[in-house]
């Protein structure tokens, strides 16, 4: 397999703990070969892949979203090439986020209305008994 590293070295080089690296592998985001002794071995590309995963997670994407995005990712940040599958997945995710934002704003508006009404009722009640 050429130059390889074990999970501990990948963890040190990326700052990501081994438990998280195993999770990325379980989610299909990171690939490891198995040595004859059963240890995971990663190639040099794994360092970049983990950095890409971290950036995409920091952007609020789920591991499922990231699985769609990684084949179209270039560089550490990463930059995303406009693959049709990628664009469809990102548009779907954006639509879901917009729906969540709408629900949150409706909840916020309702809660603020209840607070205002309760404050007004509280003031009137206080004035009656003062």
TrEMBL record:
Q: Kindly give the InterPro entries that the UniProt entry links to this protein.
A: DNA-bd_dom_put_sf, MerR-type_HTH_dom, MerR_fam
Q: Pfam family of this protein, just one?
A: MerR_1
Q: Where are the transmembrane segments?
A: none
Keywords, A to Z, come to: DNA-binding
Q: Which Gene3D superfamilies match?
A: 1.10.1660.10
> Ranges for the HTH merR-type domain?
4-72
Q: What is this protein called?
A: MerR family transcriptional regulator
Q: Which organism is it from?
A: Amycolatopsis oliviviridis
């Amino acid at each position: 397999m050429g130059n390889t590293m074990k999970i501990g070295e990948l963890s040190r080089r990326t700052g990501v703990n081994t438990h998280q690296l195993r999770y990325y592998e379980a989610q299909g985001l990171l690939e490891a070969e198995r040595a004859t002794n059963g240890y995971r071995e990663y190639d040099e590309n794994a360092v970049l892949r983990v950095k890409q995963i971290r950036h995409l997670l920091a952007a609020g994407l789920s591991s499922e979203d990231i699985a769609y995005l990684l084949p179209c990712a270039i560089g550490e940040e990463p930059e995303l090439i406009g693959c049709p599958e990628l664009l469809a997945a990102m548009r779907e995710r954006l639509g879901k986020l917009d729906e969540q934002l709408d629900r949150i704003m409706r909840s916020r508006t309702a809660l603020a209305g209840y607070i205002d009404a309760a404050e007004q009722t509280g003031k009137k009640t206080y004035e009656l008994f003062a």
